[in-house]
Specification:
- By secondary structure, the protein is an alpha/beta fold.
- The chain has one domain: P-loop containing nucleotide triphosphate hydrolases (Rossmann fold, 3-Layer(aba) Sandwich).
- It is 44% helix and 18% strand.
- The chain is globular.
Length: 183
């Protein structure tokens, strides 16, 4: 139960947020739905999005392009909603640089061993890709100081992780000096 499961649970519970769907060039996995899990686009379309400055940030991750579309974030913020974006460390660093008041939450497993078990059980990566994911995860943990908050996402405790995220959002709304986020 990782980031996708936490976001799905937040949607299921009707949390008052806008979950921004990331754009990717990677092939769709079994069970994934376009415009739900990701916006699946061709490399050509992705490159046009970069050229037209339609992406807040983008990166090549594991040989595939991923990006965060600007317009849905702007629409959410303009309508008074909070926008939630699922990105990797590189994306988080870019967003923090471009939008310093953005609130970054690091969702982490209780241990690296549990993360590795989760990745292996998913059976969505080749042995090479799985080894790369494990190495990357170890490096990502070193980037914790970039984030504002950390949530340990324990197996079978997804409701706890969701309630902690909602508590962070509530606390941020109660700040004496609110963060002003604009794109």
């Amino acid at each position: 139960m990782g980031k996708d499961a936490v976001l799905a649970k937040m949607k299921e519970l009707g949390c008052p947020l806008e979950c921004i769907v990331t754009v990717t060039t990677r092939p769709r996995r079994a069970g994934e739905r376009d415009n739900v899990d990701y916006n699946f686009v061709s490399t050509g379309r992705f490159l046009r999005m970069i050229e037209n400055k339609e992406l807040l940030e983008w990166a090549n991750v594991y040989g595939n392009m991923y990006g965060v579309p600007k317009e849905p974030i702007k629409q959410a913020l303009e309508s008074g909603k909070d926008a939630v974006v699922k990105v990797d460390i590189q994306g988080a660093a870019t967003i923090k640089k471009l939008v310093p008041p953005a609130v970054l939450i690091f969702l982490m497993p209780p241990s690296m061993e549990e993360l590795f078990t989760r990745l292996e059980q998913r059976q969505t990566e080749s042995a090479f890709d799985l080894a790369l994911r494990k190495k990357t995860a170890e490096e990502e943990i070193k980037q914790l100081p970039l984030f504002d908050y950390i949530i340990v996402n324990k197996q079978r405790e997804i409701d706890r992780a969701v309630s902690q995220i909602m508590a962070i959002i509530t606390a941020e709304k109660c700040r004496v000096t609110p963060r002003e986020i604009a794109l």
